[in-house]
Design goal:
The chain folds into three domains: 3-55; 70-251, Vaccinia Virus protein VP39 (Rossmann fold), CATH 3.40.50; 266-381. β2 (108-114), α7 (118-131) and β3 (136-138) form a beta-alpha-beta unit. The protein starts with 6 loop residues before the first helix and ends with a strand. The strands form two sheets. It has a nine-stranded mixed beta sheet with strand order 3-2-1-4-5-7-6-8-9. The protein has an eight-stranded mixed beta sheet with strand order 10-12-13-11-14-17-16-15. Helix content is 31%, strand content 27%. The protein has helices spanning 7-15, 21-25, 36-52, 66-71, 75-81, 99-104, 118-131, 142-148, 180-190, 204-210, 260-265, 282-287, 290-297, 350-357; strands at 87-92, 108-114, 136-138, 155-158, 193-198, 214-222, 225-234, 243-249, 256-259, 269-270, 276-280, 300-301, 309-311, 320-328, 338-343, 360-372, 375-381. It has 382 residues and is of the alpha/beta class.
């Protein structure tokens, strides 16, 4: 790692940020102490940092292999997670590239980072030195650390590996590394507050059934793409008071927060399409609050399975898109027109719709193919 930080090598990396990487890899490295593969990896890292974590665009920062870059949280999600967290003693059991740890630990006095990959934790240590942050860096398997540890922590954070040795994706908690079901008791012994980052594909009802003392489940999307799901565990939590929090970062949409039992008790109202159509963002859809959206915002659903909502008057404070629409006849769709096509709870996919009506993607108007309680309908934005 020290070789890659030599001024002449860093200068070469910065001078080739826009160079085609495939052509670079075919060339011999001009520096005998580092390979062209190592140089290209640093260029890739800087490119990822430009869109994912700009705070690392500093001289002296070293970037890890692609897999670690991909698995690392973005700066925006890490910063959001750090809100309202503070204390004396912070422990990250799965440090990785250290993005989450850097932001989550900002208001803690003592920081302990565990990482079993020796090269990776050396990279993190170097970067934190550049950034002026101190921590206790421990190169160890977390199971070994937990077995030997006698200290208590105000907050434990972990992001279990979601791939097996053959790189296959895993979702059940017992298949992750570490196995959360095996260590949850041990974690609760050394901290009253635990945050676990999980795949956005994991089922919420499954989580509630297998994990003890869940206080909150937070669903984080960025520009309507659900990026991660966080589970907050507190030793005094009751299963009937679990809070669900949804957020769509880098938009002006409000957070939507509710109790899990609120959705179970909520009842939707239904109507045919009115003047405005409401499409919940994907974080809200992941939460499953389909009836509560209708009840809390006083909106009517079009169909039990559509998850589209409607009203005559515009409601601005809604966690999703709001479109002014009118119902149209399919015969009014002209060949060659361009639309942004949405198909939900409808037998035709967007591609099939384009072929059938000989239309294409684009333009400023939406065509929405869905169903109301009376049957299939087509809506067009006004």
């Amino acid at each position: 790692m020290k070789n890659i930080l030599k001024p002449e090598i860093q200068q070469f990396i910065n001078a080739n940020l826009t160079t085609d990487l495939h052509s670079l890899l075919l060339k011999k490295s001009p520096f005998p102490e580092v390979s062209m593969q190592e140089i290209v990896q640093q260029i890739k890292g800087k490119k990822v940092a430009q869109r994912k974590f700009e705070f690392l665009l500093k001289e002296g920062i070293v970037f890890p292999p692609n897999l670690n870059l991909e698995q690392a949280s973005s700066q925006s999600t890490a910063e959001f997670k750090s809100k309202s967290l503070n204390g004396r003693n912070f422990l990250d059991l799965t440090c990785g590239f250290g993005i989450d740890a850097y932001f989550l630990s900002k208001k803690f006095e003592k920081i302990t980072l565990i990482e079993q990959n020796s090269e990776l934790i050396e990279i993190v240590k170097n970067n934190w030195d550049v950034l002026g942050r101190k921590a206790n860096f421990i190169n160890e398997k977390l199971e070994v650390f937990l077995e030997e540890n006698t200290e208590k922590f105000d907050l434990i954070y972990l992001d279990p590996a979601r791939r097996d040795s053959e790189k296959n994706k895993k979702f059940l908690l017992e298949d992750l590394s570490p196995n959360l079901l095996e260590i949850q008791e041990k974690l609760s012994e050394i901290s009253d507050k635990i945050i676990i980052k999980l795949s956005p594909l994991i089922d919420i009802s499954y989580l509630v059934s297998v994990l003890k003392f869940i206080s909150k489940i937070q669903i984080i999307a960025v520009k309507n793409e659900v990026k991660e799901l966080l589970v907050f565990i507190k030793s005094d939590s009751k299963s009937d008071e679990i809070e669900i929090s949804t957020v769509n970062l880098e938009t002006d949409e409000p957070e939507f927060v509710f109790k899990l039992n609120d959705e179970k008790a909520a009842i939707s109202t239904f109507s045919e399409v009115l003047k405005f159509l409401y499409i919940p963002n994907n974080a809200v859809l992941k939460s499953g609050a389909f009836n509560l959206i209708s009840e809390k915002f006083n909106l009517s659903k079009l169909h039990p399975n559509s998850h589209f909502y409607t009203s005559e008057e515009r409601l601005n404070a809604f966690p999703g898109r709001i479109l002014e629409v009118e119902q149209i006849d399919a015969k009014t769709i002209k060949k060659g027109e361009k639309f942004n096509i949405i198909s939900k709870n409808h037998p035709l996919s967007p591609e099939e719709i384009k072929r059938k009506y000989k239309i294409s993607d684009g333009g400023n108007s939406y065509l929405i193919f869905t169903q109301s309680q009376k049957g299939k309908i087509i809506l067009k934005t006004v």
